[in-house]
Design a protein that fits this description.
The complex is a heterodimer of chains A (439) and B (328).
Chain A (H helix, E strand, L loop, with lengths): L1 H28 L2 E8 L6 H21 L15 E8 L3 H15 L4 E4 L3 H14 L2 E4 L6 H6 L6 E3 L4 H16 L6 E3 L5 H17 L20 H9 L4 E4 L3 H13 L2 H4 L1 E4 L3 H7 L8 E2 L15 H14 L5 H24 L5 H8 L3 E3 L4 E6 L4 E3 L2 E9 L4 E10 L1 H4 L7 H6 L8
Parallel strand pairs in A: 1-2, 1-3, 3-4, 4-5, 6-7, 7-8, 8-9
Antiparallel strand pairs in A: 10-11, 11-12, 13-14
Helix pairs in contact in A: 2-12, 2-13, 3-4, 6-7, 13-14
Chain B lengths: L6 H19 L2 H24 L9 H16 L5 H23 L4 H19 L11 E2 L12 H28 L1 H11 L1 H6 L4 H27 L1 E2 L1 H4 L2 H14 L4 H21 L4 H15 L5 H18 L7
Antiparallel strand pairs in B: 1-2
Classes of the chains: A alpha/beta (439), B mainly alpha (328).
């Protein structure tokens, strides 16, 4: 009886081992490029950022793997190999993300990390990514500190989106271009954490240079992150003399604020600058305020909805087909990170004549200029690791025929107009009156 | 003095030696999980010490974060040796506990738990405002030296692991001995009947105050280890109240039977989280919560109670079959 059980157990173990070997052998034969993609799948940042970002990543990976994309990305795979996408949750804070990065690199053997939404995650992961020697393409996070303070001599870490300073500078430039004489002063409502504090500081400094006559409110509002109730702040803003309100609100906080401020008619009385307002525009639809300035940190989402480049048309069409809604900025920004990888892997493979090493891929991406959905991404700052793109601002309107929010009166600011020159720190540049900007 | 060198002591010592040996075999991601378990284990011992008195703190991330941020601040002024950072982290956390203890020792039950949480959220609010420390984005921690020795890149983390194991060992053995001392044993008396303790001539408040400082020092130590393990400190993953929740989770998971169990609890928690995260990226929190529920329902005294449960059953079975287990 005992003997019989032992035998059966042995047989089972044998079968399991054989199965494992077969499986292992299977993956080894069809070689893939494993890419880990952090994005907020749970928590407050999921609906407006994490989920569209994940959808954008999944769509572009499908496009790359099947060779569906238009030229110049029309051959299949990354350097001929299929992408194996591992999307994982970005929630849980820096400690958790560092652990998860180690797991993905050392346990699951990913070849690259593409993604990251929160500046906090980028700040926490940058050094570890260098230590682990894993190619990391940061796609959404905004803080300039990533390369200006934390990682001044990057090798493995790249960022394929403008840092947040550019966005606030271009917002100020738009105001200067469109309503310079009408600006009587500007107030702000930003969340009380790094993103909100930095955004307000950048905007304030840029306005000082561009519209010196406009005075900043002495009482900028900094409500708690995720507080959800803005009654007192809205009252204060209504009574304030300033006619411009700057806000870097996002996600649920932004939706709550829009709901409460609309009800009290605040959007009719003040000109709003919502630096990442576009993230909730499609979700709110007709409830999204009209006639305000809403940004996307570059040429993404509703700013490029009608742009006719084949790549952009493919993305718009397939995204709507797959998910039933238009792609907002995080979808574009995540997909753009994959385009960067596709560009660098393919080019490195061509040069090497075989599947490239990580070092060869890095060499191609550093300082590169590659075509994205609309226009180019230029890896122009921080030794070729920080991207610059153009940035666009316009005024929102409701398009009855499409049933979507659109932007009108758009101004395109070239990359060199809204970014500091290479080697100059963002704050230093802003404080020095933005010298060297060419518009 | 042989009383000191009991089963738990030897168990912990065997654990120490085993971890030293394991250090050569571990893959880096496992070592990383190990380091975090050691860090959280230290904090959980601190909670265990309080727990034995019937006090639960929902705010020990206060001391944990204080230890971690002390590392960041000491590095800014140029202190970079692990032993100085450890002493600094433990001392500041201990000092904070000493000061707060004068207030908190007067409270019990939910008031104690929530006051702790309130203090931890004050620290969170302050840190979220301080731009020099990176506000909510946090600040990076550099690699440290070990008594002046700077290991190569490849041997840095194994060295860190050895030091963390030694620190955790000292914390565990020290706490174990403390809990066995008169002062330590009095904790349970305080829990059962505080007034009677006072009549016996001891001060319950003083006993609680000492415990509170000890638990603060242990949490500070956990914070130092965590800061060095992660290489980054930020308010959300060091000071926020959910972090305190993690520690309570681990204490419940491990049970308060034995200081060694807290490390096992911390490791189980870490593995649970890693795999829940990997296999269910969209509902991993649900799995964590579900497991806690199951533990509370089926193992109300934590993982450690599996051992006594098993012993009881064996004894019962032995009694039934007629022969008593040898030696017991």
């Amino acid at each position: 009886m005992t003997l019989g059980t032992t035998k059966t157990t042995l047989r089972l173990v044998g079968a399991a081992v054989a199965g494992a070997v077969a499986l292992g052998g299977g993956t080894a034969l069809a070689q893939t490029v494993k890419i880990g993609t952090p994005s907020f799948l749970t928590g407050a940042a999921a609906p407006a950022f994490g989920i569209p970002a994940k959808k954008g990543a999944e769509l572009i990976v499908r496009g790359i793997n099947n060779g569906e994309l238009p030229a110049p990305y029309n051959n299949s795979g990354l350097a001929g190999r299929q992408i194996e996408l591992l999307v994982y949750d970005e929630a849980g804070g820096g400690t958790k993300q560092v652990t998860e990065l180690r797991n993905k690199v050392q346990k699951d053997n990913v070849d690259a990390i593409i993604g990251i939404i929160s500046s906090g995650t980028c700040a926490a992961l940058t050094k570890v990514a260098e230590e682990l020697k894993v190619l990391t393409i940061q796609t959404v996070c905004g803080t300039p500190r990533v390369f200006e303070e934390i990682n001044k001599d990057p090798k493995y870490v790249f960022r394929t989106i403008n840092h947040a300073t550019a966005n606030n500078v271009s917002a100020a430039r738009y105001l200067a271009a469109k309503m310079k004489d009408k600006v009587k002063g500007f107030a702000g409502i930003n969340q009380n954490y790094a993103w909100g504090q930095d955004s307000w500081r950048d905007f304030e400094l840029a306005m000082k240079t561009l519209i010196p006559a406009a005075k900043a409110s002495t009482k900028p509002q900094f409500p708690k992150l995720f507080s959800g109730q803005y009654g007192t702040e809205i009252s204060a803003l209504s009574r304030s003399r300033e006619n411009i309100v700057h806000s870097s609100f996002w996600g649920g906080d932004l939706e709550a604020f829009i709901g409460q401020a609309s009800a009290r008619g605040l959007f009719k009385r003040k000109a709003f600058v919502l630096t990442v307002g576009e993230t909730v525009a499609y979700r709110l639809g007709k409830k999204f305020p009209q006639g305000i300035m809403a940004g996307t940190r570059g040429p993404y989402g509703m700013y490029v909805v009608d742009d006719q480049t084949p790549l952009n048309q493919w993305f718009q069409r397939e995204y709507r087909k797959a998910y039933g809604s238009p792609p907002s900025q995080p979808a574009y920004q995540y997909a753009q990170g994959f385009l960067a990888a596709k560009y660098a892997y393919d080019k490195a493979a061509k040069a090497a004549g075989k599947f490239p090493s990580t070092d060869q891929v890095i060499a191609e991406l550093r300082g590169a200029t590659f075509p994205t959905f609309v226009g180019n991404v230029k890896m122009g700052l921080s030794k070729g690791h920080q991207a610059i793109t153009d940035d666009r601002w316009g005024v929102t309107a409701w398009d009855e025929k499409r049933g979507e929010v659109v932007v009108k009166d758009v101004v395109v600011f070239p990359p060199e107009c809204v970014n500091p020159p290479d080697g100059v720190g963002s704050i230093e540049w802003l404080k020095g009156g933005m010298k060297g900007a060419s518009c | 003095m042989t009383r000191l060198f009991d089963k738990t002591f030897w168990g912990l010592t065997i654990g120490l030696v085993a971890l030293f040996a394991l250090n050569f075999l571990l893959e880096e991601w496992m070592r990383s999980i190990g380091l975090q378990s050691l860090s959280r284990g230290c904090v959980a011992i601190g909670l265990l010490v309080l727990w034995r008195t019937g006090l639960v703190s929902f705010g020990h991330a206060l001391f944990f974060g204080f230890g971690a941020y002390t590392v960041a601040m000491l590095q800014i002024i140029g202190v970079n040796d692990i032993i100085l950072l450890l002493i600094g982290g433990c001392a500041t956390a201990g000092l904070l506990a000493l000061v707060l203890g004068f207030l908190l020792r007067q409270y019990r039950a939910i008031f104690f738990a929530l006051l702790n949480m309130a203090f931890s959220m004050i620290l969170y609010g302050v840190l979220a405002k301080v731009e020099a420390l990176g506000s909510t984005d946090g600040i990076g921690i550099n690699q440290v030296s070990f008594f002046g020795f700077v290991p190569s890149d490849d041997s840095y983390r194994p060295t860190l692991f050895i030091f963390a194991v030694i620190f955790a060992y000292i914390a565990a053995v020290g706490s174990h001995w403390y809990l066995k001392s008169t002062l330590g044993l009095m904790t349970m008396a305080v829990r059962e009947n505080e007034i009677r303790v006072e009549y016996l001539g001891y001060s319950a408040e003083k006993a609680i105050h000492i415990k509170y400082v000890l638990s603060g020092v242990l949490a500070g130590m956990g914070g130092v280890i965590m800061a060095l393990t992660i290489g980054h400190v930020d308010p959300d993953s060091m000071v926020y109240w959910t972090v305190s929740g993690d520690f309570v989770f681990i204490t419940i998971l491990a049970g308060t039977g034995n200081v060694g169990a807290t490390f096992i609890g911390a490791l189980v928690y870490e593995l649970l989280r890693t795999y829940a995260f990997e296999f269910a990226p969209e509902i991993w929190q649900l799995i964590l919560g579900g497991s806690l529920l199951l533990i509370i329902m089926f193992l109300p005294d934590g993982l450690w109670s599996i051992r006594s449960e098993w012993r009881n059953r064996r004894a019962l079975a032995a009694a039934k079959s007629g022969d008593a287990p040898a030696g017991e």
